[in-house]
Amino acid sequence: MLEDPATAAPSPTAWPTAYPQGYAVVDVETTGLARDDRIISAAVYRLDARGEVEDHWYTLVNPERDPGPVWIHGLTSEALEGAPLFTDIAEEFSARLDGRVLVAHNAVFDWQMIAREYARAERRAPVRQRLCTIALSKELGLPLPNHKLQSLAAHFGVVQQRAHHALDDARVLAEAFRPSLRAAAAGSVRLPLQECLPLTEWRDTAAAAPRIGRQAGSHGGNGGTSGYTGYSSYQPTSWRPSRKRPACPYPNPGRYEDGKRLKQGMRVAFSGDTSIERDLLEDRAIEAGLHVSTSLSRLTSLLVTNDPDAGTSKVVKARQYGTPVIDEAAFGQLLRDVEPASER
């Protein structure tokens, strides 16, 4: 891709000596967000010290279970049935990561999914540091409307071709990371590197989850997740101090519709335990431009719950009002591509 000289920072002649010598830009698509969810595709763009692409690699991965929200990532059981297991691609994946800083958009998520897959395979990922492009964009003070990948890409004139496809997402991120890295070098900005601590042991609690070829249900156009039971046994604490949330700046566009994107301004309520910290999930929703509501009313656009059969007041009201209900995994995937609010 040719960079727009108006947006791309020039490559400085004096490159910071403390900067890493190479990067691995990574994107993984998964069956969901929980600790027991699995990688179903992975892509790596290897970059040199100054962000130039050296090569790229992509693979499907058989998760040995239900593929999760197919309507988001498009990977069906049939598409994944003949794919290699993670243990089959672990060595090649390691070769792509070895000696490099892992770069990803919301890097903690990609790193955690990768680390868990290696732990299941009784191996360690050869990654010592990671760099989140969200954190880097904040360090650079980029004038982005939000922290979505498409906003970062648009800032640098990078065109997305296949959203939620690991290879294209990794390409987009690599092309947006290069000018970001050059801008950081030109300004002698300290890169927001984080240490990667690999898991040393793993106990899989999703043994009962449906496996590919014999899952309990299919993912049709109604956006359901029949048979998807791979949630973590981890239970976060039920008590949380109250946090003052900023007011949502967008009008409520109405209810969420199955098979469509979330839209900024939608009112989202949560019910029951979540497999990742509720505060983190709510923060991600707010950053995406959604209105997180502590109660459920006729104005609520969507209820997120891992137990739609529970008798909680929110679930009961959702049934009464006809409020759409989805699980945490599907919500996490939808958060990656929220539609901008309509201009007033």
Explained architecture:
The chain is α/β, with parallel strands linked by helices. Helices cover 28% and strands 15% of the residues. It is built from 10 helices and 10 strands. The protein has helices at residues 70-73, 77-80, 86-97, 107-120, 133-140, 149-155, 166-186, 278-287, 313-321, 328-334; strands spanning 22-30, 39-48, 53-60, 101-104, 129-132, 193-195, 267-271, 291-293, 302-305, 325-326. The chain has a 6-stranded mixed β-sheet with strand order 3-2-1-4-5-6, sandwiched between helices. Strands 8-7-9-10 form a 4-stranded parallel β-sheet. Strand 9 (302-305), helix 9 and strand 10 (325-326) form a beta-alpha-beta unit. The longest helix has 21 residues, at 166-186. The protein is globular, with a radius of gyration of 20 Å. It starts with 21 loop residues before the first strand and ends in a 10-residue tail after the last helix. Residues 1-8 and 213-242 have low confidence and may be disordered.
